User: Fold these one by one.
Assistant:
Number 1:
Amino acid sequence: MVPLVRELDPSAGPLQFFGAELRRARAAAGLSQDQLGQRLGYSGAQVGKVETGERAPSQDFAQGCDQAFPEAGGLFGRIYLLARRWDGGYPSWFAEWVDSERRATSLRSWEPLLIPGLLQTADYARAILAADPETAEDQLDELVAARVERQAIFDRPSPPTLWAVLDEAVLHRLIGSRKVMYDQLLHLADTSCRSNITVQIVPAEIGAHAGLLGGFAIANFDNAASTVYMESPDQGQTTEVASVVRRLSLTFDTLRADALPRGASRDLIGKVAEERWATT
């Protein structure tokens, strides 16, 4: 029996365009997905997911494709770079995590520096995005809209649960203006009242703790392996590697144990809003 091959629409988006071109080049070279994966340093399954548009290629993956198919003249690197402007406000390396958020039944998020994107106000998001030297002024509205639109997952009939744990320093870091911070913290406190959203704060008095090395998030699904997103100074990384998921799940549980209870966390958020950021 000949296996079914999923048809791709290259015009559906940058991931599908990249995947269609990759499949075409691989087939022309007479390579299987496993064989190409060996050349790239990825599994055949990962190659398959990129080909079907289910997984966003990393820059390293795109560069590897250009090396594997030199006759393409650097096509895959160009698609990758162009995709950063075609992706509706998301960098291509972040697209896989956005898809994970949409499919997740529950999400766990740790943030030592900023309010999580799923809980940001538009003004707070704008201030963060505008601070990136690579953000063009004409892109800013689109980027802000894309970040806020991610929050629509909580308006679905069956929304995912979110457990967000933040370092107290996040509440004291000036982002934008005093008014932006005041409005953001009130929004955070209000949102934490929703039955499916829990926000906890790790108080400053804890001192050194397990989450100081960086933020991460974990997406859980009904019938699939959990996915982790890890922040970095350059590009975030999304992975399903079981050992990484286990390690960060343990880290999250440790941070949650250090955090204030839900009600006390909400009280602290409101206190910092009024005492530090309220304007007269």
Number 2:
Amino acid sequence: MLHFFQDLWEYPFLRNAVAAALLAAVAAGVTGSLVVVRRSTYLAGAVSHSVLAGLGLARLLERRFGIGWLPPMAGAALAAVAAALLLAWLTLRGRHRSDSVLSAVWTGGMALGVSFVAATPGYQDDLMSYLFGSLLLVSGADLLWMLAADLVVLGVMVFCYNRFLAIAFNAELARLRGVSTGCYEVIYYVMTALTVVLLVRVAGIVLAVALLTLPAAAAGLLTRRLDRMMALAVGIGAGVSLLGLALSYGPGWPPGATIVELAIIAYLAVAVGKKLYPRA
């Protein structure tokens, strides 16, 4: 860990990684708290696995057709938002079972991504890094995109917090009181999609859901207020991300996997602590 702090001031890529981890923790803490409260983890999972389709399509257009205006992260964002809108349209209309729709989007997104990658000339080693994260490869452009996504998530939460709170705990009552629940559901789906794309850069497609939900779940054991839960989730997420990055740097471990492992430990520690000291 000492080498990490020594190299932090020397190498820009390490400073980029730290900034990316902190930016990801903000969006994950805010959106993840809603996901945990609403018990919609499978929504985030379906969206995250659809990201591979956007990544693969962007690289296919670039390598085979010379179309370079769609970078991989932009393709990931478009695919995630498209998947979220599709899920909202199919599930909110009440004509389709949510578990069947989620399964179809989850597996369909991965299948499309694999097909796009297979059709792309050359070996896609950089594209495959998105499966398990590439935190040490974050560029300045990625940081700007992550900052923009954070601002969008925070802005949406500021303006929609009361509606999200009402829908999360009693959607039927909120509807009876005149809240346009369908509109806010779509906003929630899209916000979740943007957050998942942001986390894919840190922990990868496979592990993004864990980083989205575990800090929020740990925070949910410590407080019953949603706003405090969000703040605690941001702090826990930032803590495990920075610690995981520092611990993994020296041995050369995958930082995304180390961060998720620490998130699991943090959640278990909070759960055991609450069991032993329920009044604390």
Number 3:
Amino acid sequence: MMKRILGLAFLACVAISAAAAASDPFVGDWKLNPSRSRLTDKMVVESAGGNKYTFDFGGGPETIVVDGTDQPTSLYGGGTLAVGKEGATWKVVRKSGGQTIISAIWSVSADGNTLTDRYTGFNAAGRPYNLLYTYKRTTPGAGFAGTWVSTSEKAVDFVLGIQLRPFQGDGLSIVDPSSQLMGDMDFAAPLVRRLDAHTVEFLRKKAGGELSDFLRLELSPDLKSLTITPHAVAGVEQHVFAFDRG
């Protein structure tokens, strides 16, 4: 479930090697403005026969037995994924290093067309934060199996914010206080373009040249608003994250 952009895990460890200093207009504290943001999410659940299911939360397929046990996965840096049935609901738990980083309770409406996800994330100190997602079914399926696209996301007990800080005098670090992560990720061949004083694009490509990550950061002319646009996901409306300077 690392696909959840509200957690901003993919932003948390990105160091952008572009010309920047303490006076860089990007530097500051930023608070998400939900009314100007577009946070559509997509996940796919497919039956793999018997009690096995394949889950794709945006980072690639993971096939496990739905029996509630922790099962190893190579995605999202490794760790385990567990999905278990609890009455009419499913409980989804992802762990890293033996520690729970994501827990969620899924339920499907009586007509089978709406999935509600009561999602709990944990920051580096182990403190939980809660989100409520609602998804609509977009392909035929039974129960939890199908393609689901979110229609709403609600932060239950926290305000999402990020921080931009200078990085080694000539870069920017994006910090996600909810997870207490910051700093540099060792990208083999990052491609960073500072288009102008108010616009930065960060790209990362796979060995074969295929685009794997993309972020566009753009400041408003008055420097009071920041828009972050990530890589588009097929079949999902383009995400837009709008922040106001804190």
Number 4:
Amino acid sequence: MKLIRLLTAVALLVAVMRPALAADAIFPPGMRVGLIPPAGLSAAKSFPGFETEDHGVKVLVTELPAGAYAEVMNTFKGTVPDTSGVKPESIQTGAGLGYYTAENARDGNTAVRRYSMILSGGTFSGYVAAQVPENATKIYSDDAVRQMFATAVIRKEVPVDEQLSLMPFNVTELGHFKNVRTLAPSAALVLADGDEATGFEPAPFMVIGLITATPPEPGDRGRFAQEAATTIPGVRDARITMSEPIRIDGQPAYETRIDATSGKDNVAVTVVQWLRFGGPRMLRVIGSSPRDQWTTAFPRFRAVRDGIQPRG
């Protein structure tokens, strides 16, 4: 009996002392950052993160560019001057060393305690921000928020089905692309043969999203499409080689192609942009390929385009 009691005690001790694992953490949909929220917080409905039932306590979980972590780390080490007046503190998390701040602030007429933490995800920075009203600080104290921050973990990939479920449209064909990445939940999707570490530009990739800007009249669609194509982010020295009206799934659309330069290595690319009109928001599909791979990339782009349907 003594041996059984001893083994039971050891098991309980290990369960209490073990670090947070990714399986324990809760990941907001589409995010690679997760954590274990304190009791009383559940999934938020209007932002990625958690909140109390009365929406008073909020915990935002999101992603920032990779360089954001380095900037905060340099501020912590004193290699970069701190102009905010709030010096970060280090914290050991399930994802490695993070940095966090805590300060008093106001949300309208309400006194609040605000916290933020940043940690490295390799190709991105994980960011967690919490706000606690003054009347809730006894329950959600500095120590409680710090303990929550310590449970933060990173997952390498978000399941493809989870990412696609967040999009305002259905994507039924992925064109055999190796990587699927949500640029922003419910906003835009990237399909690529490259990745964030190597860069997308040296290989074929696509960006799919909805935009609210639409031409006021049907006669303005050509001009609108050409202007949009030459202002695609990351594209330089763009030259339009073709722009004409087409129909996609029975709806009016415009196809525009450009030759351009893209990426830090100045890759010569051919880019196609499809705009599908109809409704208050317009579907925009962009396919970019190194020029010497265009012949094989274009049929993949078109197959993905034709597999995009409005979400019922």
